Amino acid sequence: MSSTRNPGRVAGVLYLLLLAAPLRLIYIPSKLFVRGNATATANNIAAHELLFRLGIVADLFCGIVLIFIVLAFYRLFKGVDQNLAVLMVILGGVLPAAVDFFNVLNDAAALVLIRGADFLSVFDKPQRDALAMLFLRLHHQEIVAAEILWGLWLFPFGVLVMRSGFLPRILGVLLIVNCFAYLAQSLTSLLLPSYANVVAQWTFPALFGELWIMLWLLIKGAKVPAEAAAAT
Questions:
Q1: Phi and psi at residue 226, in whole multiples of 5°?
Q2: What is the pLDDT at residue 232?
């Protein structure tokens, strides 16, 4: 079945493009950031500036892809419940994309400080490195807050999957569990940061809910039944 006749497979392919997100979320921090050492972090970024810039591009790319993903899902689920489908678009596409675009400003500011532009000559290097680390920390805190949106959009998404009749209900259940896992991680990091790692370890398996539906859509796809499409 071609992707043009199967909107679910289109959504699955777009979902796959979000695999660019771990470049900035996981890989770059693990390779370049040194916890508690602003100077070492700044030196690493300066030595691998292209890699750091690729992280900025990855954030922008994922923000754009999010919009197309939720529009593909809206096309798929609008006949199931249009109000929930609109809510899914707002929570899963519009707001997270705005966060991604806003958050690259923190990385851009850190890069300007590390490169040491002429107008920053009033600050010595240790001061610039410390300010750069501040913006990198702000980037991380923005991600922690964004996890609330990453979770919330999965609730209407999961309900739509369960009600659809053309996708397995268990996938919807897994998405809702995934929703609460993200919320638990985000709220723990914001309210009780000393317990964040413990909660992250316990909730990590639940984060595979999105992976399962991505794989299902890639392999099986999802097509709105003819009678539902006609009604829409």
A1: -60, -40
A2: 45
| pLDDT score of 61 | 95
Residues 135, 87: Cα–Cα separation, whole Å: 31
Q: How many domains does the chain have?
A: 1
- Is 175 contained in some domain? no
Three-state secondary structure of the chain: CCCCCCHHHHHHHHHHHHHHCHHHHHHHHHHHCCCCCHHHHHHHHHHCHHHHHHHHHHHHHHHHHHHHHHHHHHHHHCCCCHHHHHHHHHHHHHHHHHHHHHHHHHHHHHHHHHHCCHHHCCCCHHHHHHHHHHHHHHHHHHHHHHHHHHHHCHHHHHHHHHHHCCCCHHHHHHHHHHHHHHHHHHHHHHHCHHHHHHHHHHHHHHHHHHHHHHHHHHHCCCCCCHHHHHHC
Query: CA neighbours within 13 Å on the CB side: how many for 226?
Result: 0
pTM of the predicted model over 0.70:
yes
Question: Would 37 be classed as within a structural domain?
Answer: yes
Q: Which domain holds residue 22?
A: 7-146+211-225
Q: Does the residue 157 lie in any domain?
A: no
Is the CB of residue 116 less than 8 Å from the CB of residue 78? no
Distance CA 114, CA 119 (A): 13
pLDDT digits (tens, 9 = 90+) for 154-173: 999 999 999 998 899 999 99
